[in-house]
Amino acid sequence: xxxxxxxxxxxxxxxxxxxxxxxxxxxxxxxxxxxxxxxxxxxxxxxxxxxxxxxxxxxxxxxxxxxxxxxxxxxxxxxxxxxxxxxxxxxxxxxxxxxxxxxxxxxxxxxxxxxxxxxxxxxxxxxxxxxxxxxxxxxxxxxxxxxxxxxxxxxxxxxxxxxxxxxxxxxxxxxxxxxxxxxxxxxxxxxxxxxxxxxxxxxxxxxxxxxxxxxxxxxx
Length: 220
Known about the structure:
Helix content: 10-25%
Shape: elongated
CATH topology of the largest domain: Serine Protease, Human Cytomegalovirus Protease, Chain A
Mean pLDDT: 74
Number of strands: 14
CATH class of the largest domain: Alpha Beta
Number of domains: 2
Largest sheet: 9 strands, mixed
């Protein structure tokens, strides 16, 4: 089975723990392994019973960690994944994704008959062009090879003001500062991460301060 890897960035959101979205592969872009995937190359997909794409850890099909909705658009293979937080190693992988240790995604596939071509690049390198492939899975991996493919978001499990306060404290704010910011900032955070906070002051912090904290609530 062939593999191609891409890096990703993670941004926290409160809607659903374990959820993430982004691109498992980018079309028309040469990665660090001199491979290029053409648009629509994934002609067939090994789906789950409910029509989703399996998510694995390091391409180990004995360590599946969730499944994803997917589609191919002009940019690449877009996935909306859900990590199974009831599986211990999947939950561990999710926390490693959040802190940036697992910072790549990779697709596993077989090249179909007649599905590969070769092209010479401007610098003289020979590029493998993949035109037809059978997609098996998308994996979370430590290293990515394609600098243009990013995961857009990963959902966190912050569900109340106490957890928000703890996040602020662990991010370097004093306990007093975290409590003051969380007491007013969490409502704005609940409405829309990164949205504008209400005008005025909150817990001794200005609206801009609260907006800055909420906007910085990301793991990259």
